[in-house]
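Entries read sequence, tokenised fold; example below:

***
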Amino acid sequence: MSRKAKERQRGRIILNQSQRPEPNRRAWPIVRAYVPVKDAWRVSGCGTAGIVRKQPDGALTYSIFNIELTKGGLTGALGAENKSLQEIDEALSGMAELVPAFEDGDADLMARYVWGAYAMSIDEGAQWPSELKTRHLGLLPPMAGTKNWWLEQFVHQMMPWKLHEFAMEVLDAAETPSDKEIAVAVWMEFDLEDTDQLLETCRSNPDDFRKTEGLDGVANFAWIMERRYPPYNRVPHFLIGIVPGKVLGHAPSLSMASRLVMALRKVTGGKIALQRVDWGDASELRIAPPGLAMIK
């Protein structure tokens, strides 16, 4: 089955449909915008974008967009109307572990992500219901040009070219179970001024960071976490190496590379910054993905 045929068959998530006449939501003031976390997006092509606008009655409406290059760009949208800011914050907090990483950002940048991902999904054969175009995309600032231009700026300006190439290879691969993804070796290098503190954290938590063999002169650890799927056992997820001023990271898939970025941001208090990233096929893996399965 071709990639585009698969995309046409794939279910798309659109929630809270309405039969009422559609208001001009673009005229409502923008309260917040959400964009993919830049470093997490750069290593994985996984991200979440969103927008919150203020309705004429003072209540808020929002839409959240899930973007994954390996699934053809935009994969779904959800949102609700007549909400308070507290209710929206609670809803987003509840989905934080379920969707790719996002943060507050510029509304125009958010729109570039979503319009580009939407154009990619159309190019890959997606057929979206009118609910997406009116209710969800109708909240976005407009973007000049055609769908071809939206896609071109998305591919050439919003991601590393090599990431796009690897994502398209994954997209072209055989159909995989919903809880699996194609293995991709992802290598990352980060700048971190206080690597001594990270090294102390690793050495003082041997249940989470197991010393491993690696490059000479580098303190190497396997980062052990609980699996997100049954049997929920604790297994190595990532490899990290620490040298003065630098942290090296290795993840066995694109989505897990995004998770590693966010985990390092959390353990370092947000002081770490991605400097380089590269990708390779499964033959270059130095760690097995949790729940590894061979699909023929």
Observations:
- Residues 7-11 have pLDDT under 50 and may be disordered.
- Residues 6 and 125 are 8 Å apart (CA to CA).
- The chain has two domains: 3-160, 185-284.
- Residues 3-160 form one domain.
